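Predict structure. Input: Adenylate kinase, 180 residues.
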Amino acid sequence: MRRVLVVGISGAGKSTLARELERRLGLPFHEMDALHFGGPGWAVSATFAEDTARLAGTDRWIFDSLGYPEVRDLLWERADTIVWLDLPRRVVMRRVLLRSLRRSLLRERLFGGNREKWREWLRSDHPAWWAWSQYGARRAEIARRAGDARFAPLRVVRLRTPRAAAVWLGTQEPRRNGAG
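Output follows.
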């Protein structure tokens, strides 16, 4: 594994798993939302596609996203491994709700200095509503891509429970002596 794409719906644990893979494997991790949201008001970075293409053009990386539409194919074509967190909806929803609640209560700074605000909970693009409404479509999209000949010979690791994810992660060899 040298170019890893960790995919799943919002709240599945993509960033958490990607950070742990970074620690264990010594691959540089690039948080997709941090690249995408470049400023206040959730503004999209003007250089998002170029920045992502530059990073994806290197030999070693981890990204934590299916990929925004403008870079999705590029990431899937460059990846050698897809780690799919295909967790049950009840697990995802519990995680995304708790995460958004924590972020709102503690006013955590996120990408581009943004924060989740209580009034945003009513918007259809809020992570909780988005995860609920897009759960089936996102799973179908990932399954279609995982079987698409354009992206062969990708290694696809499909993890269907938090326990399976923990067990798989435990099999990933930690970095030794700075070697990656």
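The two ends are 10 Å apart (CA to CA).
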